[in-house]
Amino acid sequence: HWKHGGIVGVFGYGGGIVGRYADVPELFPGVEHFHTVRVAQPASKYYSTENLRGLMNLWEKYGSGVTNFHGSTGDIILLGTRTENLEPFFWDLTHDMGQDLGGSGSNLRTPANCLGMSRCEWSCYDTEECCHSLTMKYQDEIHRPAFPYKFKFKFSGCPNDCVASIARSDISVIGTWRDAIRIDQAAVKEYVAGNYPANGGAHSGRDWGKFDINKEVINLCPTNCMWMEGSELKIDDKECTRCMHCINVMPRALRPGVDK
Ligand code: HEM
Ligand code: HEM
Ligand code: SF4
Ligand code: SF4
Description:
Elements lengths: L1 E3 L12 E2 L1 E3 L13 E4 L9 H14 E7 L6 E6 L1 H13 L16 E2 L13 H11 L1 H5 L9 E4 L5 H6 L3 E4 L7 E2 L1 H8 L20 H4 L9 E4 L2 E4 L9 H5 L4 E2 L5
Parallel strand pairs: 7-8, 8-9
Antiparallel strand pairs: 1-3, 2-4, 4-6, 5-6, 10-13, 11-12
The structure holds protoporphyrin IX containing FE (2 copies) and iron/sulfur cluster (SF4) (2 copies).
One iron/sulfur cluster (SF4) binds next to loops.
Pfam families: NIR_SIR
Keywords: Iron, Iron-sulfur, Metal-binding
InterPro entries: 4Fe4S_Fe-S-bd, DsrA, Nit/Sulf_reduc_fer-like_dom_sf, NO2/SO3_Rdtase_4Fe4S_dom, NO2/SO3_Rdtase_4Fe4S_sf
């Protein structure tokens, strides 16, 4: 028994707060108001424990204490507060925590990115930098809904995130490389000999039998652009669609190119 809240928000912003009320407040007075607050997540979702404790204390003070880390939108979702708590919460969030509300409604939603170069050697561009700079550039569009519908950016450092990125945004920026996949032929031999675990050992809990480079890599290449010449692995890079499969299976032997 919830009803849509209409326009509930903080002064100067048209997004970031999603208004909700119980339609039977006399039965459930504790949740008469139950607005959701979207707080912009940091790029790559890195937090210090201190920052998390600060956020939790703030939400215990002004809200229900119920959270969702993170929503499908990427934001920190703080569920359940009353209208009169919104402005004091927003003041403390922006002044004491240095954090901001995210997007909601028909605006630019909080841009999101994979952790990119901060931890991942496969990232083909600096996803955090792109996400941060566009978030700063489009502050007006994030906070003041002016579009006919929601709009989302997502920044993925490589095609491993392509499905999530495309399904969950309107503009997905997916890193790739122009030159050839880097091949370490000595490491290819180690995989073929079974000395290196396929997929970084991710599936090693079960017995899949001996590693078979034809079955697990070459025959699964979607563009059929890989083959063996003796013990050498060859790739016709102009046919490669950069799907990442072979790289994921043999990460010590194959890496994205250097012209990213
Ligand atoms: C009239 C009542 C409600 C309506 C119409 C409503 C509608 C929506 C809509 C349209 C979304 C966005 C889905 C999207 O990402 O496209 C959403 C997200 C969400 N809602 Fe509700 N909702 C209501 C009440 C509630 C209540 C009472 C709760 C929890 C107690 C709740 C929890 C959530 C959560 C956790 C999300 C995900 C947020 C995110 O992914 O960013 N909603 N809701
Ligand atoms: C057996 C019990 C449950 C199952 C099998 C289940 C399953 C799922 C699945 C499959 C998703 C989608 C994940 C994704 O692809 O993004 C999901 C999302 C979610 N579930 Fe559950 N769930 C269960 C119980 C609950 C309960 C009890 C709550 C809250 C009280 C809850 C809250 C949510 C929320 C808020 C999301 C959305 C997260 C987001 O915003 O991305 N779930 N759940
Ligand atoms: S999407 Fe690619 S670059 Fe980003 S974290 Fe995943 S594997 Fe690394
Ligand atoms: S990245 Fe994909 S398309 Fe390119 S060679 Fe590897 S498996 Fe084939």
